[in-house]
Amino acid sequence: MVSVRRAIVLVLKSKAVIEKEAEDGAFHSERLAVPIPSVVRLVYFVKVPHRARAALSRRAVFVRDEFQCQYCGSVAENVDHIRPRSKGGTHTWDNVVASCRPCNARKENLLLNEAGMTLRRPPRTPKDSLFLMAAVGKTYPAWEPYLSIESSNGQSSDSQYAAY
């Protein structure tokens, strides 16, 4: 994902072509009008100066876990450390899950086996597509053919994130 400004610069430098135009106008100069790109395709590889990784945030954990408690499956309201930080746990993707209030209170400051709880699925570092969902907050229908976002049930889930 790049900004509109970066996309236009790439198009003007012939490093990218516009695959899909936005429906709301164009950028104009004295002698040129460039449609606002919604999707661009690189003509050749362009080195990205800084490759952003999915930042560990409350919102990103909820998106990764599909807003479901990873202990019981109900609606998640909290973020829980599987191995509590007081017991040497880290604040990393593989140690943080979404949880509901009752499960979070039940687990407290205990390890999973001490609390007699299990995870519905193991936590994982998200793919870049999840980072896109957390960063942008929604997708546009024009992007759907270019994104491959898989949900836990293996089906495309672009539309489920449209409201977030």
Give a structural overview:
The chain is α+β, with helices and mostly antiparallel strands. The protein is built from five helices and four strands; from the N terminus they run H-E-E-H-E-E-H-H-H. A hairpin with a 4-residue loop joins strand 1 (16-28) and strand 2.
CATH class of the largest domain equals Mainly Alpha
For the record, the count of structural domains works out to 2
SSE pattern, N- to C-terminal: HEEHEEHHH
pLDDT < 50 stretches = 150-164
Measured by DSSP, the beta-strand proportion falls in 15-25%
Helical proportion, percent range: 10-25%
| CATH topology term of the largest domain | DNA Binding (I), subunit A
Placed side by side, the strands forming the largest sheet appear as 1-2
Q: What integer is the average pLDDT? A: 80
List keywords for this structure.
164 residues, alpha+beta, DNA Binding (I), subunit A, two-stranded antiparallel ribbon, 5 helices, 4 strands, 22% helix, elongated, disordered C terminus
SSE diagram, text form:
Layout: H1 4-12, E1 16-28, E2 33-42, H2 58-64, E3 78-81, E4 96-99, H3 101-107, H4 112-115, H5 128-136
Antiparallel strand pairs: 1-2, 3-4
Helix pairs in contact: 2-5
Describe the structure in brief.
The chain is of the alpha+beta class. It is 22% helix and 19% strand. The chain starts with a helix and ends in a 28-residue tail after the last helix.
